[in-house]
Amino acid sequence: MAKVLRCGDLMPGCNAVIEGKDEAEVMAKGAEHARTAHKMTAIPPEMAAKVRAAIKEKQ
Ligand SMILES: [Zn+2]
Question: 38 CA to middle of ligand 1, Å?
Fold first, then answer.
């Protein structure tokens, strides 16, 4: 089942929607997006947990 992450759930004001075939792909793309769009060079463990919680099944 495909997964989707709305970055705005974590970063208010960001309209990026990250999709992947599974949670791992969404996490990888999300990390790349965080690095390029939000200048986050590392994802702290508590942020990774929030990201995981925000990932939803793609409708
Ligand atoms: Zn974003």
Answer: 6
pLDDT in tens, 10-56: 999 999 999 999 999 999 999 999 999 999 998 899 999 999 999 99
CA 47 / ligand 1 centre spacing (Å)? 13
Q: Tell me the whole-structure pTM to 2 decimals.
A: 0.90
DSSP 8-state assignment for residue 59: -
The alpha carbon of 1 and the centre of ligand 1 are apart by a number of angstroms equal to 23
Domain that residue 33 falls in: 3-57
Which of helix, strand or coil describes residue 53? helix
Return the beta strands (E) in the chain as ranges: 3-6, 17-20, 56-57
Q: How many domains does the chain have?
A: 1
